[in-house]
Amino acid sequence: MTPQPSEESFATLTAPTTLLIKRWLPGKRERVWDYLTDSDLRRKWLAAGDMAPTPGHKFTLTWRNDDLSPDAPAPEGKSGEHSLDSEIVTFDPPEKLEFRWGNGTVTFKLEQKGEKTLLTLTHTGIETRSGRVGISTGWHSHLDLLVSEVSGTERDAFWTKYEALNKIYEERVPA
Length: 175
What we know:
Layout: E1 12-15, E2 18-26, H1 29-37, H2 39-43, E3 58-64, H3 65-68, E4 81-92, E5 96-101, E6 104-113, E7 116-123, H4 129-151, H5 158-172
Antiparallel strand pairs: 1-2, 2-7, 3-4, 4-5, 5-6, 6-7
Helix pairs in contact: 4-5
């Protein structure tokens, strides 16, 4: 059974089309940076896709949703492989990664705080309420996988967690 998420783990809307979500990760930010930028490591918690460290570089993120949670299958409409064409906006290791996501951007900022790294994700350009619900749910679930990967702890069943969080975000995200 997936435990109830803590209040600070939820995405918050900082503007009508912008969400912010944070996670604490063990270790140095250079290691976390690798999980953001290395396709093989990123595939374990989000999506594969080779990205060059150059603003303007176009790349494709590819989700293999059935691999995220082999013990709990993806719900109808979410299984299989999905891709998103993107472009690097900022590549400033190990502090800031920003890339285009549809009509918006996704920005990861990493701050070293002692033996931990604070990851702050900002996602802009989310025009619809259903988009804000789904993207908030998705980032929450994916970042929890990232925490498990970096920590070396057991992963929750991704799709079980996703479906539970989606119900919570349906209530949290304003109309």
